[in-house]
Amino acid sequence: MATYNKRGYKAPKPEQEKEVLEYDPIDAVSEKDSTTAEVFNSLDTGASRIEEWVAGNQKIIFGIVGALALATVGYFAYDRFVAEPKEEVAANEMFQAQQYFQQAVDGVASDSLYNLALNGGEGKMGFLKVAEHYSGTDAGNLAHYYAGISYLNLHKYKEAITELEKFSSKDAFLSALSKGAIGDAFAQNNQLPEALDYYEKAATSNENDLTTPRFLLKAGQVALVLKKKDKALEYFTKIQDKYDTAPEAANIDALIGMAQ
What we know:
Transmembrane segments: 60-78
Shape: elongated
Largest sheet: none
TPR repeats: 176-209
Keywords: Membrane, TPR repeat, Transmembrane, Transmembrane helix
Number of helices: 12
Structural class: mainly alpha
Strand content: under 5%
């Protein structure tokens, strides 16, 4: 008997495809939820361990935080309540010595005024005491420079060198002047190699139209005495080439002739 396919009739699907259709999406979601739960459980366990560690070590943690806070507050407190007032007191204390120094520079009874500037007067400290009692302040540092120049003018060259070598400055111009003053003290003390060394440092530490030709000239003159004509020629030529309008260039041609 012939078999006819009815319209809309579909043949049964193979067993393998039935198995695929038997896949339960609810079970799949459950598996995902289970994996997610394991991840969150792991995170919760880690967080709990951290909480336990924090709880057990609170004293240490607060101690570290407290120490950092105290250090920060201490720094600003020191700067405001100790360092700044100390700078102001030191500057006020040194003011009278600076007045003596300026009067000495102006040439009125200079030796006695330089001594007053060094040792103090009218109930105020001189440069030596300011440098000693206010060490670490800007005023204490500057007092070494003033003391060195005072000693230099009093012809006490060793003392001048000692004080000036204690002075330091970030200001290149003032640094050059202090090195040149040390050179002057060594030259006056007949220590010419040392003088030449400091004149060279002064000339090269801050090149400008005022101090550089001055210390190049002194370096060249000392180099001539030491029979270092090549160096002398170098310094004199530099004045001629770069600082021809400076007062030190007035007789530079004659000096170059001596160095050749």
